[in-house]
């Protein structure tokens, strides 16, 4: 049980870091988003919004092919970028991004929802593939960066960009066909096809409290290494 807790906590922590520097050994969100969207911006994800000024249109309405730029927040020190693959409605979109739920992992067509008071996509929650539900943390964003031509480009893994795995892929039509959430199957090797939950159920907005103890509830000023050290220390005590 403790081993499972450590594994789950590590996965949740990885999802919290977004574009945080895991090193050159794993695929980062920036080169993935740049390839898939065609928005040719560089540098840390937190700087994309300012870099786009005067080069790309920006706004607060989701559009297919647009890049959703996340602000730096807590352990997500370098921000994050994700690409919109489909707009489901005013509050729900599907995104494609890398290095979120698992270091270097690619998640395709997973759910992100707007939880902002004004409906302007300034606060979002993102699907967490390892737990098969919506992530517990609310993530602040800048908004959307629109490419000159809305087109989703294929991403071909490139060792020069770091190791990557295709951790989760959703059947986009099932979000509408089933009217709610889809639960992916965990894997460490291959593309995952999703399995629908019962018809009519809404996406979960909760997660395992044991994981939260080491992740979302941790003080913002604490480093990722300190949180992981706590996980290891807890394991030894038990």
From TrEMBL:
It holds the Pfam family CHAP. Residues 1-21 form the signal peptide. SUPFAM superfamilies: Cysteine proteinases. The keyword Magnesium does not apply. Gene3D superfamilies: endopeptidase domain like (from Nostoc punctiforme). It comes from the Bacteria. Keywords: Signal. Residues 4-125 form the Peptidase C51 domain. This is Amidase. It comes from Sphingobium lactosutens DS20.
């Amino acid at each position: 049980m403790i081993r499972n807790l450590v594994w789950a906590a590590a996965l949740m922590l990885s999802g919290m870091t977004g574009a945080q520097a895991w090193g050159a050994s794993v695929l980062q969100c920036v080169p993935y988003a740049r390839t898939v969207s065609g928005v040719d911006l560089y540098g840390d994800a937190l700087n994309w919004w300012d870099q786009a000024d005067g080069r790309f249109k920006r706004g607060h309405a989701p559009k297919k092919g647009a890049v959703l730029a996340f602000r730096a927040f807590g352990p997500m020190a370098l921000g994050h970028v994700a690409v919109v693959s489909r707009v489901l409605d005013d509050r729900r979109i599907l995104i494609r991004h890398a290095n979120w739920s698992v270091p270097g992992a690619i998640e395709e067509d997973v759910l992100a929802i707007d939880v902002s008071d004004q409906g302007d996509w300034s606060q979002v929650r993102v699907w967490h593939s390892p737990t098969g539900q919506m992530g517990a943390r609310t993530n602040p964003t800048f908004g959307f960066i629109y490419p000159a031509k809305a087109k989703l480009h294929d991403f071909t893994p490139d060792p020069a960009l770091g190791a990557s795995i295709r951790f989760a892929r959703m059947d986009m039509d099932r979000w509408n066909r089933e009217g709610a959430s889809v639960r992916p199957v965990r894997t460490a090797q291959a593309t995952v096809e999703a399995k629908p939950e019962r018809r009519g159920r809404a996406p979960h907005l909760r997660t395992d409290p044991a994981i939260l103890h080491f992740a979302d509830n941790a003080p913002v000023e604490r480093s990722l290494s300190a949180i992981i050290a706590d996980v290891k220390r807890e394991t030894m005590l038990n």
